[in-house]
Amino acid sequence: xxxxxVIDTGRKPAHWNVAMTAALRELHRxxxxxxxxxxxxxxxxxxRHLCWDIVAERDALAGRLGQIGExxxxxxxxxxxxxxxPARFQPRDQVVIGGRKIAASRCSFEGPTVxxxxxVLTGAADVHGRPATGEAVSLRALLGRxxxxxxxxxxxxxxxxxxxxxxxxxxxxxxxxxxxAERICNDATGALAIGxxxxxxxxxxxxxxxxxx
Length: 213
What we know:
Elements: E1 4-11, H1 14-29, E2 36-41, E3 49-57, H2 58-61, H3 65-81, E4 88-90, E5 94-97, E6 100-110, E7 113-121, H4 139-143, H5 149-164, E8 168-170, H6 175-185, H7 191-194
Parallel strand pairs: 1-2, 1-8
Antiparallel strand pairs: 2-3, 3-7, 4-5, 5-6, 6-7
Helix pairs in contact: 1-6, 3-5
């Protein structure tokens, strides 16, 4: 079975992260890249937690959106449980510990491709970096320390691999992915803002009507 790729693009500006997610989605939809997981971080002024995207063949996971969301959530919960935490998945695609949210995700379809976005609260229990509330809790609050991103990522991948029954493999970001993300970032027509993102053909070139490089 082909492994799911694991990519870490580090800390990048918000608009670059949005563009990279769009690039991965388009290239996967066109059959140019295999199923992938991308870990990333936003600048501290925007978000203070570990984020991830999953771009995969919808039928290879479960097919129905609700089923896919549950599978991903169970995988994240399994990974956090490997830290000795009583994490569990609950409906509406959240992972909770003691009734408080520690992680959440959201999935959508683009043809045969499903894209799931998610995050795990690490150093701050609020997506805007505010102090913890009664509805959320962070790894720092639970463990008394902020675990290294590499530690959290490894455990999440182990949990996802266990639940999805798929192997994972760490790889570097490909040139085609990086180039398309930069093209989306630099698009002067405003396509990114209005959601009319460029489509990539299965030949690796922009399809007719897409944004020019």
